[in-house]
Amino acid sequence: MANLPKPTALRLLAGNPGKRPLNLREPVTGEADTQAPPELSEAACEHWNRLAPMLVKSGVLKQSDRDLLVMYCIGYTAFLQSAAEGKLNVTLMAQLRQALGEMGMTPAARTRIIVDKPTEKEDGKARFFG
Fold it and tell me: What is the pTM of this model?
């Protein structure tokens, strides 16, 4: 499988370690709505509600990425169901892991992401002002 280009948001979070030029004309599709889509089952909604706010806050999930997260949540629910029935779907597990990597949610993907930590002064204010 060929190496796919990393989204600009993930490259920026990682500090652009390769120092390659950033795509400054990458389409901006807007912030994603974190409300779970109606087509998700109750179990899949639980995964959505856990992941979507975190991904939006980190700047990774955009409106155009909602379908990828929908597919992940449905697939993860199916994986858990098959595992509960004693049937391990290795192909589905690999597909889920790939989707997680594309959204920066694997340990290896996180090692390449650098985020600014709040200073002690900012953190103190946040306790009182949200």
Answer: 0.68
Task: State whether residue 67 is helix, strand or coil.
Answer: helix
Tell me how far apart the alpha carbons of residues 32 and 28 are, in angstroms, rounded to a whole number. 11
Closest CA to 109 of 55, 46, 71, 30: 55
Q: Please, what sign has the CA dihedral across residues 29, 113, 21, 67?
A: negative
Q: What is the pLDDT along the chain (130 residues), one digit of tens a residue?
A: 456 677 777 777 778 888 888 777 766 677 778 999 999 999 999 999 999 998 888 877 888 889 999 999 999 999 999 999 999 899 999 999 999 988 888 877 776 665 555 555 555 545 444 5
Rounded-to-integer distance, Cα 34 and Cα 129, Å = 23
Alpha-carbon distance 15 to 1, whole Å?
25
CA angle 94, 100, 106 (to 5 degrees): 100
